[in-house]
Every structure is written in structure tokens, then in C-alpha cells.
TrEMBL record:
One of the protein's GO biological processes: DNA recombination
Family that this chain belongs to: Belongs to the SbcD family.
Record's subunit section: Heterodimer of SbcC and SbcD.
Protein name as annotated: Nuclease SbcCD subunit D
Name of the coding gene: sbcD
Domain Calcineurin-like phosphoesterase, chain residue ranges per copy: 1-218
Organism: Streptomyces pratensis (strain ATCC 33331 / IAF-45CD)
Amino acid sequence: MRILHTSDWHLGRSFHRVPMLDAQAAYLDHLVETVREHAVDVVVVAGDVYDRAVPPLSAVQLFDDALHRLAGAGVPTVMISGNHDSARRLGVGAGLIARAGIHLRTDPADCATPVVLHDAHGEVAFYGLPYLEPALVRDALGATGAGHEGVLTAAMDRVRADLSVRPEGTRSVVLAHAFVAGGEPSDSERDITVGGVAAVPAGVFDGVDYVALGHLHGCQRVTDRVRYSGSPLAYSFSEHTHRKTMWLIDLGPGGDLAAERVDCPVPRPLARLRGRLDALLEDPALEGHREAWVEATLTDPTRPDEPMARLLERFPHTLSLVFDPERAPQDPLASYAQRLEGRDDQQVAEDFVAHVRGGSGPSDQERTVLRAVFDDVRIDDVIGEVSR
């Protein structure tokens, strides 16, 4: 069976205030063309179809058009909700839509109810695990462990139990939206940390033939059978080195697997430039970035006059301007920036406690309280999006 694995469309999202709807429409055209050109048997979409819980009407119309075209091509599609989606909104009409071959899996209670498809070698069971917010689904799934690992383990236990009573030789595919250990994140994914831990081990998914992951925006292989497709478009400058692709997976009769990357159309390349303004304006080696979307980090010791206007003359698609002035190592501002670099909210808060106490950091109990507060704020944000 030939499977096209994609995820993280983020329909309705902009890139530094540049609307991306036309680029998203071009990607979906490419998706449908790929289905036909490569004789794809099933499309799997591993979450974050939309960029927010209440997407703009233009994004909904684009999604509706994509569903009609996939259904018209006669190719089944299995799709789950991600942490950016409203599971309830995305799942509206799922029972009716399934009659057209579009299978939406947005309810955690259905994680062990597969979409069963057939090929010449027998059945393939597709299990959809939508994004599982631990605080909201832990009790319903009967999870014994805390955080993402606990709820995903409980969901996968249900999947393996269902798979165990199916005919011998049934192959299996799991769609999941999660941060799996070994994956490389970028700046454009929303933090899903719970209890100070975001990543779950790949071993949670043992026992199935292929795991189609969503959430991380870089196409990558965690193991031979556990892969991220990544987002089809770049949504932050941290993705400037990404090769945007989909996975074309051939699942053989005995569960053997072959994988190939299919490139996605690039609306405009990304470039991250760093240096003093005069150097960026004069360096002939940078001429190739004239048509790129540019993020420029200026290192001038003092802020130059009209930097954005001057950059736009050479790089007309400059979208982001960052100031990171060169400073001596002993400069207190330089050392403060270095202390903050790469640190999350919890670590910054613990550093602040140590600072006001003259070097004495928080106790284990205080760390637990801080972590609980940050988790509550993040969970309130999630609940607020779901209720909107």
C-alpha cells in the first residue's frame, strides 16, 4: 500500500505578516497532483490542519476545496487534529464525510477504532491519535503516568489491544501529533511542555508498522518506522535550512517499508544574514539572496540610521530586522543575553529566584510550584482556544 504522509498545513497562517494562503493553495494543488502522479493509495494528515482554533473563512474554504478534490480523486484520506486545531470544529460532520472517504479522527475516545483499508495483500488498519492534552484526557484514557508519555502510552495500549484481535497479518499505521524524543524542533511550533517534559520516547509506539507523526516542522526520521513529515511550508526563519517534503511510504505485504521524500513547492527561499549593515549592503557574495525573504541581524555597536529602508533597497523582501550589537565579553548586557539564550520560562524564573536571593536557587518544592504555575497558564490557553 502506498501512503502519502503529510502534516502541519497551518492553513490561515502568515509569515511575518505576509499572507501565505496562495502558497498554501499551491501546496494543496501539488498534493493532489502527487496523489495522481505517484498512484497513492491513501493520504494521512498528522494534525495542525489549521493554524488556530477559529480559522479565517478563507482557510476554511481552502480546506473544504482540498477535501472535495481528494474525495473526487477516489483516494481515502485519514486526518487527525493537532494542538493548533479545535478538535470539535475539525470533527464536525465526521460521520457523513467518512462516506466520501475522508476519515477525521479528532476524538480521543476513538483512538482504537481504526480506518481499515485493503490492498492485494490484506488489511491495513489506520489508527488516529489526535493531539492528547494530558490534563483533559488523562482520566478518560485511564492513564497511570503523568504528562504526554502517560496519555500516549494509554492510547497506544488500546491500539495494540485492538490490533491483537484482528486477523493475522493485518498491517498497522498510527497517526499521532506529539513531540517524540530524537526529533529536532524549530521556532514555529507551539510549546506543548507539561510538567517540565515535552518529549516522549519513540518506544511508546512499538508494535505497529508505521507511525506518521505531526507537530515538528522539519521532515525527519526518528526511526525507520517513526517519521515526521514536517510542515510543507516554512513558518519561521529557523526553518531556513529545511527541505520541505512529504513522505511517500510503500508498506509491503509483511510490513516491510520503503520511504521516499517528495519535495514541496517553495514560494520564496529564506535567508538569515548577520553582520554590520555596511557589510550586508556591500558584500557581493550576498547578491543571491536578493529575491529571498530575509531576516537580517545587525551587529553594529550603535544602531545605524534607517536600517530597514537601506536593507530594502538591496533585499526588497526583508521581513525581519534584529539588533545584536557586538559587545565586549565583560559588558553586563552581553552576559545577561548569554544567560537567557536557549533557556525556557521555567529556567528563567529559577534564575530570577537565585538572583534575588543572592545566589540561592529555589528548593525542589518551589520548583514544583513554579512548574505547576507555568503548566496551568499553558493549559488555560489551550482550554480557552478549544472553547472559542
